[in-house]
Structures are given as structure tokens and as C-alpha cells.
Write a structure and sequence with these properties.
globular, binds pyridoxal-5'-phosphate
Length: 351
């Protein structure tokens, strides 16, 4: 098999850098289930502060942080609403229904982009015992399967104002909120304060090997801490992992702009190799989702053809592929990916 020369499968692939490993090795630790790990506490406080919330909770995964957030706001038999490509309904394997008895309904959004009318039209409140009541709106920013889409702060505020009036809570799946912040210039706390809870991932573009943080009110995080333990997520001397997260937050946010620039460069090249496959203006961050069917390709076949040349991509649908830039992809890797994928798109599958 050809060795992988550039890996654009996901930004979860990053390996800890040497200084990150040094920070991990030097971390002060304690038993976090007893609340005695100083590095975990420092991480939780730092992230809560950045997002404008009272308290934080370190979790092993983004999925757990999301699921803890969801259950804080929605009782069994009530519903959350979100867009149909949201990670919480598409890629968390039914966890909201399985663990919390939550019913979900979705609206369809172009590139995952939030249009306030859609959640507001879908929301049901005050219908008594006749219809499932909406307790929560979930927004994903940036939007993964939508192609790294940044949600406009104005649209978020519009939904928030209406949701508050109707007594509906809001949760932000901010796995890549760092990317939204760098791309838009909107402060993290401006995004954060529009939501009751926010989850952020340390293990995607920021490059930590593991970990997410859920933030919210102190009271909400006390409850989430109980549920985290119930879910088997009470961890012991995890300051070692929290140190990687702290290092990432302190050193790897601003550099996300490099990933965004490389993604945009890819989009421009692919748009000229296969007109109609991608609109470069929609590539705002590190994720590029492209229609390869317009160039006659089946997504799995194109992924296989690129892999033979050492470039790993991901098929997100029968005719769509995804490329994700991250800490371990540099300019040379980007050049190689552009060269290989552009040629495949221009030549078509028969070549
Ligand atoms: C938008 C979004 N939310 C949540 C998650 C879940 O993160 P984890 O894989 O750590 O559970 C992901 C993972 O890719 C994601 O893309």
C-alpha cells in the first residue's frame, strides 16, 4: 500500500507536538473525581473564562460534553431541535434518545448555515399535552458536515432572543468554535454568552490528543459533573491530558488561520479544475466539502484513487468528499493534495 503522504481525513488526527508533550509530562496532577487535580481545574476555569461562563467541566470527548449539555435542558419525552446535518443527531449514534429519552426534530440547512426562521418556525411551545414541547435549540459552529460553515453572530442572536421569550434553552456544539472565532473575529465570549451551555473540543484543530470542555452556570456544571460520573466519565489523574488542552488553548488558536488559508487555496484550485464542484466563497475555515459527482466521480472511487497517490480524503456522501486541514498538514502537503485531487477532477474517473 502507498504510504499516506498527506492526511486530510480529519482534524482529529493531529499528534501532540514536542512542547505539548513536555507540558503533559510536567503537569501537576491529583484525583479529579475528588476535585483535586489542579491542572484540570485550571483548564476548566480558563475555558469557562474565554467563553464568558461561570464554570467548566473537562470531558473525555466532544460527544460526552454535548450529551451532558443536552440532558441538562431537555427532560425525557421533550425535544431538541437542530439542523439535519448536526453532529448531535447525525454522528452521536442516537445518544440523546438512548441516554436521556430525548426526541429530536430537524430543519434542513444549506451548508448547515443557520437561518433563524427555520428553528423559530419549527419550535413548539405551549401546546399542552398535544404535541412534543421544544426545550432546546442546538447550533453547531463551525458546522462540520456543512463544510466548516461559520454561523453569523446576528443569526444566533435572533434565535436566542426569540428562544428566551419562549422559554427554550440553547446549546452550542462548539467543537470547532475556535475556528469560527479566528475566521470571523467575533470574540469567543460573544458566541458563548448567547448559549446556556457550550461544548468545545481540544482534540480537533487545536491538536490535543483528547478532551473537551462543557461550560455553563456553576449550578449546571455541578449537575453535569454528577452525570459525567454516571456515564463512566469520572477520570483520575487527568491533569496530564488537561495540560495538553491548556497548552493547545494558549498556543494553537491563532495558527488556525493558516489552516483556513490552505483550505481556501484548495477550494480555489478545485473550483477551476472542476467548475461547480465547490464555491470557494463557502470555504471559510479548515473544512472543505466538495461535490465530485459534477466531475463524474463516485466519492468512494475518487477517495480510493487519491489514496493510491498518498492523499487521504473522506467520502461524506455518494457524490461528496471532505478535506480537513489541521496542525499536521503544511504548505507542501497542501500543494500535493491540490495537485493530485485537481488532476483527478479534471481527468474524470475514466482516465
Ligand atoms: C461538530 C462536532 N461535534 C462533536 C464532535 C464529537 O467529538 P468527539 O469525537 O470527541 O466525541 C465532533 C467530532 O468530530 C464534531 O465534529
Amino acid at each position: 500500500m502507498t504510504p499516506i503522504r498527506v492526511d486530510l481525513l480529519s482534524d482529529t488526527l493531529t499528534r501532540p507536538t514536542s512542547p505539548m508533550r513536555a507540558a503533559m509530562a510536567a503537569a501537576e496532577v491529583g484525583d479529579d473525581v475528588f476535585g483535586e487535580d489542579p491542572t484540570v481545574k485550571a483548564l476548566e476555569e480558563a475555558v469557562a473564562g474565554l467563553l464568558g461562563h461561570e464554570a467548566g467541566l473537562f470531558t473525555p470527548t466532544g460527544s460526552m460534553a454535548n450529551q451532558l449539555g443536552l440532558r441538562l435542558h431537555v427532560k425525557p419525552g421533550e425535544e431538541l431541535i437542530c439542523d439535519s446535518l448536526a453532529h448531535v443527531v447525525r454522528a452521536e449514534l442516537g445518544a440523546a434518545a438512548v441516554f436521556s429519552g430525548i426526541s429530536s426534530r430537524t430543519w434542513t440547512a444549506d451548508h448547515g448555515l443557520l437561518d433563524p426562521r427555520q428553528p423559530l418556525d419549527l419550535m413548539i411551545t405551549g401546546a399542552g399535552p398535544y404535541q412534543v414541547g421544544t426545550s432546546l435549540v442546538v447550533v453547531e459552529n463551525t458546522h462540520n458536515f456543512g463544510g466548516g460553515t461559520v454561523q453569523p453572530i446576528g443569526a444566533i442572536r435572533e434565535v436566542r432572543a426569540a428562544a428566551l421569550e419562549r422559554g427554550v434553552a440553547m446549546h452550542l456544539d462548539g467543537a470547532r468554535l475556535w475556528n469560527a472565532h479566528v475566521a470571523s473575529g467575533v470574540p469567543l465570549s460573544d458566541y458563548g454568552r448567547e448559549f446556556d451551555t457550550v461544548s468545545v473540543c481540544l482534540s480537533k484543530g487545536l491538536g490535543a490528543p483528547v478532551g473537551s470542555v462543557l461550560v455553563g452556570s456553576a449550578e449546571a456544571m455541578t449537575e453535569a459533573r454528577i452525570w459525567r460520573k454516571r456515564y463512566g466519565g469520572g477520570m483520575r489523574q487527568v491533569g496530564i491530558l488537561a495540560a495538553a488542552g491548556l497548552y493547545a488553548v494558549e498556543h494553537h488558536i491563532e495558527r488556525l488561520a493558516d489552516d483556513h488559508a490552505r483550505g481556501r487555496r484548495g477550494a480555489e484550485a478545485f473550483a477551476s479544475a472542476a467548475p461547480g464542484s465547490i464555491d470557494p466563497a463557502t470555504v471559510e475555515t479548515n473544512i472543505l466539502v466538495m461535490d465530485v459527482a459534477v466531475a463524474g466521480w463516485d466519492a468512494a472511487a475518487l477517495v480510493a484513487a487519491a489514496l493510491v497517490q498518498g492523499v487521504r480524503l473522506y467520502a461524506v456522501g455518494p457524490g461528496a468528499i471532505r478535506l480537513v486541514w489541521h496542525l499536521d498538514v503544511d504548505d507542501a502537503g497542501t500543494d500535493l493534495a491540490i495537485d493530485v485531487v485537481s488532476r483527478l477532477l479534471a481527468d474524470g474517473p475514466a482516465a
